[in-house]
């Protein structure tokens, strides 16, 4: 497959897309939209996609905010809402921002800058956790992905990555359309813990155009709110287990090699970090708890992956 068209390296227009679904998150959404209005570089369009909630859609449409409001016309869930944005947006680049994330003033500049390179198809920004109080001592930064935030193994100066995180992610609209958008069989519906839809799209874009680049732009920063419920070991384990199941479904779609390419090396990072924490736990007791969460999370993800893989294998055998 050929490279991306050269003209896409020209100045691209942007649509910032915020997907939302619940009146309970209205305060978060208002903070998010306030952050967008405070950007140094304004987007060409702000599109809010409401996921099957007529009351919320009517409230936002009646507001005096400078936004365009549309309803998710596809399957309920984040993927369906994003696919609605692909059809509705006018910008060359769709910049997705979670409704509970607040961008820094130079966020849009940072995430759009790499698109000056025609080979760049996807860009992810840095996502900083906004804790209810302070980071719990037991919560290892290597598991910040469970709360939708960036992890330490991302390239500190930016550069190519396999996939981006959905709380702050920009895609060329043409590339999203070319791969059929986001998979509705993956990803979040409401407040559940599923994921991997962004990973799926990033992999399929590069499978279609091997020269396409997926980039991390650390200078583009947002603050992603962490609720009290998510700042608990129970949630982290549930999220790891759900991610393992999602990875198994992803592997069935795009191949296990691409689906788990980062995770194989990441597991070694987790184990090395946990070992270091255990060794130093005498002087720093909280590190023993952090090591337990790291190993427990790895185990939960592995169990979810194996269980889902077995379930799908049995289903295929039953159909044969």
Describe this structure as you would to a colleague.
The protein is an alpha/beta fold. It has two domains: 6-231, Spore Coat Polysaccharide Biosynthesis Protein SpsA, Chain A (Alpha-Beta Complex), CATH 3.90.550; 233-320. The chain is 42% helix and 18% strand. The protein is built from ten helices and nine strands. Strands 1, 2, 3, 4, 5, 6, 7, 8 and 9 form a nine-stranded mixed beta sheet that branches. β1 (14-20), α1 (26-37) and β2 (45-50) form a beta-alpha-beta unit. α7 packs parallel to α10 (286-319). The longest helix has 34 residues, at 286-319. The two termini are 34 Å apart.
Features:
single chain; 320 residues; alpha/beta; Spore Coat Polysaccharide Biosynthesis Protein SpsA, Chain A; 2 domains; nine-stranded mixed sheet; 10 helices; 9 strands; globular; disordered N terminus
Chart the SSEs and their pairings:
Elements: E1 14-20, H1 26-37, E2 45-50, H2 54-61, E3 68-71, H3 78-88, E4 93-97, E5 101-103, H4 107-112, E6 120-130, E7 159-160, E8 168-172, H5 173-178, H6 197-208, E9 213-225, H7 233-254, H8 256-259, H9 261-279, H10 286-319
Parallel strand pairs: 1-2, 1-4, 2-3, 6-9
Antiparallel strand pairs: 4-8, 5-9, 6-8, 7-9
């Amino acid at each position: 497959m050929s490279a991306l068209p050269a003209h896409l390296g020209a100045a691209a227009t942007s649509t910032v897309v915020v997907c939302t679904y619940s009146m309970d998150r209205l305060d978060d959404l208002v903070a998010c939209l306030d952050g967008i209005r405070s950007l140094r570089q304004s987007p060409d369009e702000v599109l809010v996609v409401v996921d099957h909630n007529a009351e919320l859609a009517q409230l936002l449409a009646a507001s005096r905010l400078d936004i365009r409001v549309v309803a998710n016309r596809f399957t309920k869930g984040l993927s369906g809402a994003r696919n609605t944005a692909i059809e509705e947006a006018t910008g060359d680049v769709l910049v997705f921002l979670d409704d509970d994330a607040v961008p820094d003033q130079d966020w849009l500049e940072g995430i759009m800058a790499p698109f000056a390179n025609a080979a760049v198809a996807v860009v992810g920004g840095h996502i900083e956790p906004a804790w209810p109080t302070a980071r719990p001592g037991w919560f290892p930064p290597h598991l910040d992905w469970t709360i939708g935030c960036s992890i330490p193994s991302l390239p500190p100066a930016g550069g190519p990555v396999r996939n981006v995180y959905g709380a702050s992610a920009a895609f060329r609209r043409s590339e999203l359309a070319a791969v059929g958008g986001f998979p509705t069989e993956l990803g979040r519906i409401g407040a559940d813990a599923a994921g991997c839809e962004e990973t799926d799209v990033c992999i399929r874009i590069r499978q279609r155009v091997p020269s396409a680049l997926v980039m991390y732009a650390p200078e583009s920063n947002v603050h992603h709110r962490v609720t009290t419920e998510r700042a608990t070991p129970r949630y982290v384990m549930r999220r790891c287990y759900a991610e393992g199941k999602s990875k198994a479904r992803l592997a069935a779609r795009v191949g296990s090699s691409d689906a788990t390419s980062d995770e194989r090396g990441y597991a070694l990072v987790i184990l090395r970090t946990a070992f270091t924490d255990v060794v130093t736990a005498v002087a720093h007791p909280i590190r023993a708890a952090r090591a337990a969460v790291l190993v427990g999370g790895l185990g939960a993800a592995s169990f979810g992956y194996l269980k889902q893989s077995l379930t799908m294998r049995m289903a295929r055998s039953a159909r044969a």
